[in-house]
Amino acid sequence: MPSRPAAALFAALLVCSSAHALQFPQPVRPGQEPWRKPFNAALEKKVSGDVKKPFDELIDWFREQAGVTFVVDPAALASKPVVTLNAKDIALGSALKQVLTPLKLEYEVRDMAIFIYNPAKLDKSMLLMEDLPIAKMLDNRAEMLNFEPEAMPAGEAIKQLTETPGIKMGMDESLKKNPVTLKLKEIGLGYAIRWTVRMAGGKIIVGRDGMQVVKR
Fold it and tell me: CA 207, 209, 214, 216: dihedral to nearest 10 degrees?
């Protein structure tokens, strides 16, 4: 049986250990990530406009109003129709639905972007979560950037994103020439890489030489 001083010391260690354990960060629940706050605020922002523009130009109008990144799935529309918005002091999210619903399009907030897609044409494999080793390499990086490639070969786009921070990421030769067009605003580096890979028709795997972009 331990002596009283030993028992007291053991109890004190337990208290210290418990207090220390409470300092560990709690896991963030899906949908409650801190980066979502400006997106939620943007979707609630009141907007007014009587706008008639080609689809891509109207999405640019929403980008300017929201101040956040929008990504449009290339498969969403076969053509880019002229669309109309009639909004008077309504939430930006409601205005966006007003434009998208007649086109059978939807949006969701994911990976530091408002993603616009057609549920009937969406390649669901494009949005699958990466393996845990990839997430560990890409998530929670401090780098924030603006990246707006215009029909840029995917190999060059990935090189621009990974070369300076020293991220080792190879790419299948068959994907390197695929053109990528994006308008990413104040987005985390890891998410910029993800969207670039997706738009190039690829996915990220981990091999013996590090991360590799391969065909989906």
Answer: 20
User: What are the residues whose beta carbons fall under 8 Å from the beta carbon of 215, sequence distance 6 or more?
Assistant: 172, 174, 175, 201, 202, 203
Q: Are residues 137 and 210 in the same domain?
A: yes
> Can you tell me which residue has the tokens 């068959």?
174
Distance of CA 145 to the CA centre of its chain: 13
> C-alpha 69: how far from its chain's center?
9
The overall pTM is greater than 0.85: no
pLDDT of residue 133: 85
d(CA 56, CA 143): 28
CA-based torsion, 118, 75, 59, 196: positive or negative: positive
Same domain, 87 and 109: yes
Is residue 196 within 8 Å of residue 182, measured between CB atoms? yes
- pLDDT tens for each residue of 130-146: 888 888 889 878 899 99
Into how many domains does the chain fold?
2
The two three-digit tokens of residue 19, written as one number: 């207090």
Enclosing domain of residue 179: 124-215
Q: CA-CA distance, 187 to 23, in Å (whole number)? A: 29
Q: Which residue type, as a one-letter code, is found at position 65?
A: Q
Phi and psi torsions of 143, nearest 5°: -65, 130
User: How many residues would you count in the chain?
Assistant: 216
Q: What is the CATH classification number for the domain harbouring 61?
A: 3.55.50.30
Q: Say if CB 86 and CB 52 are below 8 A apart.
A: no
